[in-house]
C-alpha cells in the first residue's frame, strides 16, 4: 500500500537539503538546525498557521508563506532569515506584547516562557505600538490549574491538545477579532467544566503563563512536554 | 427535462404571454420592496380588476430594474409600443397608471426617461433577465432561454468542452481577486474524487455592495444553472449556496427556485435523462464577513468556527470535508450560461485584453443615480460616475471613488479616465473587488473614510492570526487619533509600518488587504493626514532622541 516517499531537493538559506513532498519547510529546517521562530506550532499537534512568525520567503512567490503549513516542493528556494522577515517578526511580537498584559516580572513562567525567549531571540527591546491594557479575567475555579487571560496569546495549543490528544474538547475560542478568547465548555468556569478530565495537558503545552499549575510562584512554572512526542509516537504505531 | 421539452415549455409560455397585450412589471427586489412595491402591485391588480379593462392586462413581479434611487419602479410594456417606465410610484398612483393603459397615454408626471446614459450605456449579460422575468416562475426563466445552456451542455458537450469554452471566454472570478475561472475549474477537474463540491459564494458583505443580492432576488435560476454547468464541467455532484442570512428575500426566492428546478428534473438525479446528478443545498451565513474567504466559508459550512486556513492546500485539492471543492461567486456563475450558449469567443470579444466581459457595479454614495449597473470592462470611471451615475449631487465636485470595499482603495479625479479592469485598478492602488463603488464628493474626509473601513476590518477580523487581530486594532486606534487631531508624525510613521506588516503577514485576504484603504488614501490624499497632524503635535521626546 505504502509507496516509497518521493524525495526532492530544496534550498533553505543557501543549503541544499532533501525532503519528501509530505514534509513541511519547518520540519526540514528544524532537522537541519535552521532556526525558524514559531509560537502556535507544536510537534504532535495539528498545524494552525496563525502566529505568522514562521513566515518565510520563497523565490517566485510574492506572498510570504508559513513554514509550518507549506510543503516542500522540488527546487524550492527558501529564505528564512532576511531583513524583511526579521522586521515583520519583531512587529508581530510587539503587537502580541501590546495586546494583553504581559508583565514578566510577576509571571510564574518568567524565564521559561516561549514568548519571552522569542522576544529576546528576535531582538525586541521595546514595544513601539501603544499598549492596550485590557481588563481581563482570571479563572482560578479549577482545583489544580489556573487560566490567566492576561497572558494568553491565542495560539490555541490548549484547544488542539484537548481535542486531538485528550479527546475532551473542553477548550475552544469564543468572540472574534480583538475580543477572541479561550473558554471552557459552553463558557462555564473551568472548575465547573463537565468535560475536563483534569489531565493538565493544556497547561503543559501552553507557551506562556496563561495556563499554569496552582501553587507555583514567580518563575517556578516549568512546562513538561515529554508526553506529547511519546503519545504521538505510540499512537502512530498503533492507530 | 430534455432540450425539446424545455423548448416546448418556453414556447407555450411565450404564446400564453402574447395573449396579454399589456404587462405591468413591478420591481419587487429589496430596494423597491422597502418602499412598499409589494403593496403597489396589489393595488395595481385591484385597480385592473375594478376597472375591468377591455384589453387583458397582467401585473408581474420582477427583480431589480437598476435605478434604485428612483424607486419604486414600475414598467408598462404594451405589445408593439415602447415601454414606459414610471419612477417614485406610490400606492395612490395605481389607478392612474391603470387608466393610462386603456387611454394609451402615459402618466407624464411619473415617467422615468429611459433614453439617458444610465440605461443606454449599459451592456447586460449577467443582468439580462433581471427586471424582465418573474424570479418565482420557472416557466418565465425557461421562456427567455433559461436552462437551454445546461440542456445543450448535457446533450452535446463533454465536460472538457464546457471547460474549454469557459477558459476561452477569459472569464475571471467576480468575487474580487479575479482568478481565471477556467483555470480554477481545470484544477478541480484534475483532482479525482467520487465526491466533489461546487459552492456558490453569496456571502456578499462589502459595505455598499448589493450586486449579488439583486441577481439572487431577480434571477435565481441563472445561478442554479451556472452551478449545474460548473458541476458538470468539473465532475462535482453536490452544491451549496452559502448565502448570508441578512438576505431573507434572496433566500426565499432561491429556495423556491431550487424546489421548482428539482421538481422539473433540472436538479437532482439523472438530469435530462443523463448520468449527471447534481443537488443543491442552501447554507446560511451568520453574519461574519470573513466567511466570504474561501477556507473560512468551508469551515462555516462544516459547522466549525468561521476562520480561514493557510493555503495551500487549495480548496480544489482539499476543500469541504477534505474533498475537491470549487467556490465561485454569484456573478461569476451568472456568466456561465451565456458563455456556454454563445461561446467563449463571443464573451472574449467584450472587454479589455486581460479582463473580459462585463462587470456589475453597485453605485452608492454621493452620486445622483444610485443603483445597479452592468458595463463592459474597459469603460472609464468618468463614464460610470458622470454619464451613467449622473454626476455628483448638490453642485459639489467629485473627490474620489472607492472600489473593492474594505479591501480596495480610493482613487482621485486623476484616475477618472482610466479604463476599468482588474489590472488597471490594482496598479492604481485599488482592486476590482466584488463591485461596490462608493462615490465621494469634496466634503468627504479621507482620513474618516480610511478609519471607517479599518473599523470594519477590525470588527470583522476573526482573531486567528496576530497581525490582523491586533494590527487592525492598532491601526484603527492610530487613525482615530489622527482623525481627532491628536495624531503625531510618529503615529503616521507607525501606521505606515503597521500597514506593511499586516498586509504582508496576515493569514487570509481580509488582513492582507485591510490596509489598502489607508495606503491608497495616504498615496493620493496624504495632505489631509498632514493637515490633521500639524506641526505643533511633535512630542518633546522625539526632539530629544533626534538631538542625541
Q: How would you sum up this structure, described in words?
A:
The complex is a heterodimer of chains A (239) and B (548). Chain A has a 5-stranded mixed beta sheet, covered by helices on one side. With 239 residues, chain A is of the alpha+beta class. In chain A, a hairpin with a 2-residue loop joins strand 1 (7-12) and strand 2 (15-20). The longest helix of chain A is centred in the middle third of the chain and has 17 residues, at 83-99. Chain A folds into 2 domains: 7-81, Roll (Ubiquitin-like (UB roll)), CATH 3.10.20; 86-225, Alpha-Beta Plaits (2-Layer Sandwich), CATH 3.30.70. Chain A is built from 6 helices and 10 strands, in the order ββαβββααββαββαβα. The mean pLDDT of chain A is 94. Chain A has helices spanning 25-31, 83-99, 114-121, 157-166, 201-205, 227-237; strands at residues 7-12, 15-20, 55-58, 65-66, 77-79, 138-139, 145-148, 171-174, 181-184, 211-213. In chain A, 24% of the residues lie in helices and 16% in strands. Chain B has 4 domains: 18-116, 3-Layer(aba) Sandwich (Glutaredoxin), CATH 3.40.30.10; 146-347, Rossmann fold (3-Layer(aba) Sandwich); 358-441, Roll (Ubiquitin-like (UB roll)); 446-533, de novo design (two linked rop proteins) (Up-down Bundle), CATH 1.20.1440.230. Chain B is an alpha/beta fold. The A-B interface holds A 49-52, 55, 63-66, 69-71, 84, 87-88, 91-92, 95-96, 98-99, 128-130, 132, 153-154, 172-173, 175-180 and B 288, 305, 309-310, 312, 458-467, 469-474, 477, 494, 497-498, 501, 504-507, 512.
Amino acid at each position: 500500500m505504502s509507496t516509497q516517499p518521493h524525495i526532492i531537493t530544496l534550498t533553505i538559506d543557501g543549503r541544499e537539503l532533501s525532503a519528501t513532498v509530505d514534509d513541511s519547510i519547518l520540519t526540514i529546517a528544524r532537522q537541519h538546525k535552521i532556526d525558524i521562530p514559531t509560537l502556535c506550532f507544536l510537534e504532535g499537534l495539528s498545524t494552525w498557521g496563525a502566529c505568522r512568525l514562521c513566515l518565510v520567503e520563497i523565490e517566485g512567490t510574492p506572498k510570504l508563506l508559513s513554514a509550518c503549513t507549506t510543503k516542500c516542493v522540488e527546487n524550492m528556494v527558501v529564505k528564512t532569515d532576511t531583513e524583511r522577515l526579521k522586521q515583520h517578526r519583531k512587529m508581530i511580537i510587539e503587537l502580541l506584547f501590546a495586546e494583553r498584559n504581559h508583565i514578566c516580572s510577576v509571571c510564574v513562567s518568567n524565564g521559561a516562557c516561549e514568548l519571552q525567549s522569542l522576544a529576546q531571540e528576535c531582538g525586541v527591546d521595546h514595544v513601539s505600538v501603544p499598549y492596550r491594557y485590557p481588563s481581563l479575567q482570571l479563572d482560578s475555579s479549577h482545583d489544580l490549574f489556573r487560566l490567566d487571560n492576561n497572558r494568553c496569546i491565542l495560539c490555541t495549543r490548549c484547544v488542539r491538545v484537548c481535542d486531538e490528544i485528550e479527546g475532551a474538547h473542553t477548550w475552544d475560542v469564543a468572540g472574534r477579532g480583538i475580543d477572541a478568547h479561550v473558554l471552557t465548555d459552553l463558557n462555564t468556569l473551568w472548575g465547573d467544566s463537565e468535560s475536563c478530565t483534569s489531565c493538565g495537558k493544556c497547561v503543559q503545552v501552553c507557551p506562556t503563563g496563561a495556563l499554569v499549575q496552582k501553587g507555583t510562584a514567580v518563575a517556578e512554572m516549568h512546562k513538561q512536554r515529554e508526553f506529547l512526542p511519546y503519545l504521538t509516537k505510540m499512537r502512530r504505531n498503533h492507530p | 427535462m430534455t432540450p425539446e421539452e424545455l423548448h416546448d415549455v418556453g414556447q407555450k409560455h411565450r404564446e400564453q404571454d402574447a395573449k396579454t397585450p399589456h404587462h405591468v412589471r413591478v420591481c419587487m427586489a429589496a430596494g423597491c420592496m422597502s418602499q412598499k412595491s409589494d403593496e403597489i402591485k396589489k393595488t395595481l391588480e385591484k385597480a385592473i380588476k375594478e376597472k375591468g379593462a377591455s384589453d387583458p392586462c397582467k401585473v408581474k413581479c420582477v427583480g431589480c430594474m437598476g435605478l434604485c434611487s428612483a424607486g419604486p419602479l414600475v414598467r408598462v410594456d404594451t405589445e408593439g409600443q415602447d415601454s414606459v417606465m414610471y419612477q417614485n410610484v406610490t400606492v395612490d398612483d395605481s389607478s392612474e397608471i391603470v387608466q393610462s393603459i386603456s387611454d394609451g397615454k402615459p402618466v407624464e408626471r411619473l415617467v422615468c426617461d429611459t433614453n439617458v446614459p444610465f440605461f443606454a450605456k449599459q451592456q447586460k449579460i449577467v443582468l439580462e433577465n433581471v427586471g424582465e422575468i418573474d424570479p418565482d416562475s420557472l416557466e418565465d426563466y425557461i421562456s427567455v432561454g433559461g436552462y437551454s445552456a445546461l440542456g445543450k451542455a448535457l446533450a452535446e458537450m463533454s465536460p472538457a468542452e464546457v471547460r474549454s469554452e469557459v477558459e476561452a471566454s477569459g472569464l475571471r472570478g467576480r468575487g474580487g481577486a479575479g482568478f481565471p475561472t477556467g483555470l480554477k475549474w481545470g484544477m478541480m477537474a484534475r483532482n479525482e474524487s467520487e465526491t466533489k463540491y461546487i459552492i456558490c459564494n453569496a456571502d456578499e458583505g462589502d459595505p455598499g455592495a448589493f450586486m449579488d443580492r439583486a441577481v439572487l432576488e431577480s434571477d435565481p435560476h441563472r445561478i442554479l444553472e451556472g452551478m449545474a454547468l460548473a458541476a458538470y464541467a468539473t465532475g462535482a455532484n453536490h452544491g451549496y449556496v452559502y448565502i448570508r442570512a441578512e438576505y431573507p428575500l434572496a433566500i426565499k426566492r432561491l429556495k423556491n427556485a431550487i424546489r421548482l428546478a428539482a421538481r422539473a428534473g433540472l436538479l437532482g438525479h439523472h438530469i435530462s435523462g443523463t448520468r449527471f446528478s447534481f443537488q443543491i443545498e442552501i447554507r446560511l451565513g451568520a453574519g461574519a464577513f470573513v466567511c466570504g474567504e474561501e477556507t473560512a466559508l468551508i469551515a462555516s459550512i462544516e459547522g466549525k468556527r468561521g476562520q480561514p486556513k493557510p493555503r495551500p492546500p487549495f480548496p480544489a485539492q482539499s476543500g469541504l470535508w477534505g474533498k475537491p471543492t470549487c467556490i465561485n461567486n454569484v456573478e461569476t456563475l451568472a456568466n456561465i450560461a451565456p458563455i456556454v450558449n454563445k461561446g467563449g469567443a463571443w464573451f472574449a470579444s467584450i472587454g479589455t485584453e486581460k479582463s473580459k466581459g462585463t462587470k456589475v457595479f453597485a453605485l452608492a454614495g454621493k452620486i445622483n443615480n444610485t443603483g445597479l449597473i452592468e458595463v463592459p470592462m474597459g469603460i472609464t470611471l468618468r463614464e460610470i460616475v458622470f454619464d451613467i451615475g449622473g454626476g455628483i449631487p448638490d453642485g459639489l465636485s467629485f473627490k474620489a471613488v472607492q472600489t473593492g470595499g474594505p479591501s480596495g482603495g480610493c482613487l482621485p479625479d486623476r484616475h477618472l479616465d482610466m479604463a476599468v479592469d482588474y489590472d488597471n485598478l490594482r496598479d492604481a492602488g485599488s482592486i476590482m473587488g466584488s463591485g461596490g463603488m462608493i462615490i465621494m464628493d469634496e466634503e468627504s474626509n479621507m482620513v474618516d473614510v480610511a478609519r471607517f473601513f479599518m473599523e470594519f476590518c477590525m470588527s470583522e477580523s476573526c482573531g486567528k492570526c496576530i497581525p490582523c487581530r491586533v494590527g487592525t486594532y492598532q491601526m484603527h486606534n492610530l487613525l482615530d487619533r489622527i482623525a481627532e487631531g491628536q495624531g503625531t508624525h510618529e503615529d503616521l510613521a507607525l501606521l505606515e509600518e503597521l500597514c506593511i506588516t499586516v498586509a504582508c503577514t496576515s493569514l487570509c485576504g481580509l488582513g492582507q488587504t485591510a490596509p489598502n484603504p489607508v495606503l491608497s488614501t495616504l498615496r493620493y490624499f496624504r495632505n489631509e493626514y498632514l493637515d490633521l497632524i500639524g506641526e505643533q503635535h511633535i512630542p518633546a521626546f522625539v526632539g530629544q532622541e533626534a538631538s542625541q
